[in-house]
Amino acid sequence: MENLSAFRSDKQRAVLDMVLKLNETGLASVLEFPQIVVTGDQSAGKSSVLEAISGLKYPRREGMCTRCAIEVVLREADKLSITARIIPHRESRRLYSELQNLTSFRETIEDISNLPDLIEKAMICMGLNDKSGKRGPRAFSRDLLRVEMNGPGVPELTLVDLPGLIHATKNEQDEEDVKATHALTKNYLKNRRTIVLAIISAKNDYANQVIINLCKQHGATSRTLGIITKPNYLLPNSELEAEFVSLSDNNDNLESTSNFEERLGSEIDFFGKGIWTTRDSRTLGIDALRSRLSKLLESHLRQKLPELRSELGQKLSQTKKQLLGLGEFRKTISEKREQLFDISWSLGGIIVAAVKGDYEADFFGQVDTSTDIDAQTNVVRLRAVIQYLNRKFTKHMRLHGHKYTIAFGGIEDVLEEDPEQDWDDVEDYDQLAKTLKPKNWNRLQAERWVLKILQRCKGRELPGSYNPELIRLLFSEQSEPWEKIASTHIDHVAKACHRFLLLALRHVTREDIRDRLYRSRIRHALNNEVAVARKELENILEDKNGPPVSYNHTFTLTVQRLRHRKYCSILKRMSRANTTFINVDDSEMTTIDPQVWAKHYVDPDKLREVAREAADMDRFSASEALDSQIAYYKDELKYFIDVVTKQVVERRLIKPLASIVKTSLSAEKLSDKEISDITAEPLDVSSQREELEHLVGILEQGDETFEQVELTLG
C-alpha cells in the first residue's frame, strides 16, 4: 500500500480520522459527508484513475463498464480485508424479497486479486449480469455497491466511481440508459460537499464531453478537479495537444498501464519529453495527483466540517421535536392511565384559558388577520370566536328576526338601531339572510293584517278593546324567524367547539390518540351538551309562544311613545284637511298683524266637528293592538338575544367544555381495556418512534464526537 502513503501526514490524518469517527456513528446515513466522486464520459478512463488512487484492482473485460455507483471505503486496520455489500436505493420500489436479497449480500475477501470476482458476484445479485457474466436484465442500477477495504497503511477516505455518461443510444444501450447515468451523476454533483474528479479523455474533444457541462449546470466547478487521461493519443506539437496542455493548468494527466510500478515508470518517461517538460511537475502524474488530492480533500474537510456541525445541531433539534410530538411511550396500564391523566390535565388547562380569553400559552400562537375571526387558524381563541358569533346572532335577530318590517308613514320606526352599535365588522349569514328577508309593509298594511286576525279571534271584550290572545298571535307570527336564527347560531357555536377541541387535542397528544379520544369520548360528550342546549332553546321558544307577559316598564313607555306619535300624526293630517285661507282686506290692514297676511289657519269649528265623527272600533282596536305588539316585540327581542347567548350558549355549550374533557378522560372511570384501546400505539408510529430514537442516538453520538475531536484539534 505504498502508493497510498501520499495521504499520510499527521495534520491530514487528524482531519480524516475525524470524518472516520463521525462515519462510525452512522451519521453518513443522515448527513451528506465530504466524498470524492470519480465521473466522466463512458470509457474515459474513470476506473483506471480510481485504481491509481486507491490501489484497488477493478474487473476488466472487453466492452465492460461501470453500471452502478461503487463506493470504496478505505479504513486503516492491522489486517487486510475487503468486504462488499449492497445498499438498495431508498426511493426504489421493490418487492420485499428483492430488498432482502440485496441487503443480505455481504462477501469478504482477504486477497486483493480476488476483488474483480467479488464485484462480479455483486453485479449478478443486483441483476446487472447473469451467472455467465453476460449483461443481465438491468442495464444500470441506482443501488450502491459499497466496497470496504481495511488494511495496514490505508487512510480513511471514500471514493465513488460512477457509471460513465452516455452520449447517445447504441446497440443494447437505449434511451433509458442515457437518462439513468445522467440522473445518477447529477444526484452526486448536487451534494455541495462532493469533490468531483472529472475525467477528461484526450482521445475526444474536451468541449464535447458531457461531464464538463454537468459540472457547470450544478455549480460544481469550484470543487472539481479535472484529470486528463490518455494523453499519449495526442499528436506532438498538434493544436489539440496545445489545447489539452492549456487545460492541464488546472488538471492532472495519467496513463493506464498494467500495474502501479509500470504506470509510474511510463509516466516519468512520457512527461519527461516534449511539450510536457514545460508544465509544472505538480500537475503531472499519479503521484502528483495523490498529493494534490489529499491536500484538496483535507482543505475541503476543514471548510465543510463546521457546516456539518451546524447541520447536525439543527437535525438533532428537529428530530427531538418530532420524537416529542409522538409523546412518551407507555408500556404498563398504570403508565397509560398516567398518560391519559396528563392529556386531560393539559387539555383542561387550554380549555379554561381559551374560555377566559387568556391567550398567553404557546398553543394559541399568532393572530391571523388574513382570515375570518372564526376561521380554522383563529378558532383556537375560543372566547373571541364566541363573542364574534354572538354578535352575528344579535345582528341577524335585529335585521331578520321579524317577519314584517312595518313603516309608520313618515314617523320614524320605534325599533331604530342603536346609533352606538357598529355592525361593519360582522358579516351576514348570507344564505340565512336570503331565506329570512322580512316583507316591507306600511302602517296601513300592518293594521289590515292585525284587523284580519282581530276579527277572527274576538271574545267577549267591549268595543274598542281586543282579546289578549291577539297579541300572542301577532307576536308569534312576527317572531317566526327566531327559531331558525337561534338554531343556526347553536350549530355555529357547536362547530367552533368541535374544531377547537380537535386542535387542542392535537396540541397535547399524538394524532392517533387524538382521533380515538375525539371519536370515542369527546365528540359524543359534546354532542350530548349540544342536545341539552337545543332542549333549552325549545323551552325558551315554548315560553315565547305562550301568553304575553311583561313586567318591564319600557313596554308602557314604548306604547305611550307610539301612540303619542300616532295621534300627533293624525292631528297634523286633520289640521291640514281643515284649514281656511285668509284674504286680508286693505281697509283692515291696520288691525291685522302683517305676519298673517294671506295665510292659512285651522278652523276650530271644523276641526271640532270632524273630531266628533264616530270611528271604526275594530280599526281602532287593530291600531292599538299593533302598537302593543310592536312594543312587546321590542322587549322580547332583547330578552331573547340575552337568554340565548347567556343561557343556551354560555351555560349549556361553553361552560361545560372543561367538565366534558374531565369526565370523558377520567382514567379512574375507564377500564384497562378502554385505556389500552385509547393509548395503543399503531405499528407505523412505533416504527417511526424507533427510527427517530435511533436517529437521535446517532446524532447525539456524532455531536459528542465533534466535541472530542474539536478539543483534540484545538
TrEMBL record:
A GO term from the CC aspect: microtubule
InterPro entries tied to this protein: Dynamin, Dynamin_GTPase, Dynamin_N, Dynamin_stalk, G_DYNAMIN_dom, GED_dom, P-loop_NTPase
GED domain residues: 622-714
Cross-referenced CDD domains: DLP_1
GO annotation (BP), single: mitochondrial fission
Pfam families linked to this entry: Dynamin_M, Dynamin_N
GO molecular function, a single term: microtubule binding
The keyword GTP-binding appears for this protein: yes
Gene3D superfamilies: P-loop containing nucleotide triphosphate hydrolases (3.40.50.300)
Keywords: GTP-binding, Nucleotide-binding
Coiled-coil region list: none
Dynamin-type G domain span: 30-306
Protein name: P-loop containing nucleoside triphosphate hydrolase protein
Organism, scientific name: Viridothelium virens (Speckled blister lichen)
